[in-house]
Amino acid sequence: MQCSYFDAGICRSCTLLDQSYADQLAGKERRSRGLLAAFPAAEWLPAAASAQEGFRNKAKMVVGGTVEAPTLGILDERRRGVDLSRCPLCSGGILAAMPALTAFVSAARLEPYDVPARRGELKYVLVTESPDGELMVRFVVRDEQVLPRIRRELPALQRALPTAVVVSVNLQPEHKAIVEGEREIVLTDRETLPMRLGAVTLSLRPQSFFQTNTAIAIELYAQARAWIDEVDPASLWDLYCGVGGFALHAAVPSRRSLLAGATDARPAPTAPSTSATDRPRDVVGIEVSPEAVVAARETAAALGLDRVRFEAADATAFALAATEPPELVLVNPPRRGIGAELAGWLEGSGVRHVVYSSCNPVTLASDLAAMPSFTVRRARLFDMFPNTAHVEVITLLERVA
Ligand SMILES: C[S@@+](CC[C@H](N)C(=O)[O-])C[C@H]1O[C@@H](n2cnc3c(N)ncnc32)[C@H](O)[C@@H]1O
């Protein structure tokens, strides 16, 4: 991938950009296998490769510069704004939106937040593009004072950017390195962005996590579903479920329809060929973000899935309080992993199969070390984050002791 920002030394976020894509992928596989060497997988499936550019469905743009000339991008080492509004990682709809969003900042007279001076109003612009080309745009601001100006300019923004179907303001008053605050004010009639992934259309609301790379997410969910079908549990939990991607893909009636409906998905080439099962499953999804749980419930209702339930709770607390474990547990935690307590619970739980999808093989390895009764049956790398060293590794674990 060619990137003028990288070539000019303006942005070095894509740390692997000077390697060929084949070398990137081989290096990631080597590193992941090395980190998991103490837990050898019976089978490593071929890595799922990604498009190298245009794959990011979400842009997290730090706002810098001035009201007249705002920058959307990152901060340099002096904490001054650097414009990256043509970052080639972003999907086409996000890139196309950048000029209108930059103009909006000026029109609404939103003063970019100056980190060293602790002065200003607008901190971030967060944009997500759905597979259908619709956008969720969120303005992270310091306080409510800006709301009348944002509301005033919103109709003009929507005329310039009709794809912006969900627009909200997030309040983040603190001078801290966190992107968003707890309060969200949705300014549009629509509050959710439908994320159509084949047979399952997930609902995305502000303050909900979504996998960064839509095409790879489709393959990841299909892979998990294929392994779940092989095990064919009557009950499963999806811990750290977000808007319910794994849970809902596990619950829809047939894997075949799931892959057939995916217009922009490339079906997992090594998906096991066992026939899909339609045996009903009891599925429970647990997620700490109440907004994500609302969205997951909406999708389950839209799909008519009455044996799927979502709860807003801490994953570890939920597991520790449960009276009866399910037959299979899927976990997809943040980078810190599931931690010793939940790993210890899984170890002693009697659960026979675990599907662990991890964005950090370092914590995956430490969690596996705390679960010595399990062996890794299968593993597969999904290149969710091309051009960086980050990976998603999914494993199927089976109890052997
Ligand atoms: C890597 S994301 C995975 C989301 C989801 N599985 C998906 O495919 O989109 C991790 C999720 O864990 C949630 N989370 C973080 N800490 C949690 C906790 N202690 N208990 C439950 N969920 C948590 C986050 O809000 C986020 O949605």
Describe this structure in words.
There is one protein chain. The protein has 401 residues and is an alpha/beta fold. It is built from 11 helices and 17 strands. The strands form 3 sheets. It has an 8-stranded mixed β-sheet, with helices on both faces. A 7-stranded mixed β-sheet has the order 4-3-2-5-6-7-8. Residues 260-275 have low confidence and may be disordered. The site of S-adenosylmethionine has 19 residues, from helix 6 and strand 12.
Distance between the termini: 47 Å
- pLDDT < 50 runs, ≥5 residues: 260-275
Rounded mean pLDDT is: 93
How many strands, which pairing sense, and closed or not: the largest β-sheet?
A: 8 strands, mixed
Name the bound molecules: S-adenosylmethionine
Number of helices: 11
How does the overall form come out from the CA principal axes?
globular
What descriptors fit this protein?
401 residues; alpha/beta; eight-stranded mixed β-sheet; seven-stranded mixed β-sheet; 11 helices; binds S-adenosylmethionine
SSE diagram, text form:
Layout: H1 4-7, H2 21-35, E1 43-48, E2 58-65, E3 70-75, E4 81-83, H3 92-107, E5 122-129, E6 135-141, H4 147-160, E7 164-171, E8 183-186, E9 193-197, E10 200-204, H5 214-231, E11 235-239, H6 245-251, H7 255-260, E12 282-287, H8 290-302, E13 308-312, H9 315-321, E14 328-331, H10 339-349, E15 353-358, H11 361-369, E16 374-382, E17 392-399
Parallel strand pairs: 1-16, 6-7, 11-12, 11-14, 12-13, 14-15
Antiparallel strand pairs: 2-3, 2-5, 3-4, 5-6, 7-8, 9-10, 15-17, 16-17
Helix pairs in contact: 3-4, 5-6
Bound molecules: S-adenosylmethionine.
The site of S-adenosylmethionine has 19 residues, from helix 6 and strand 12.
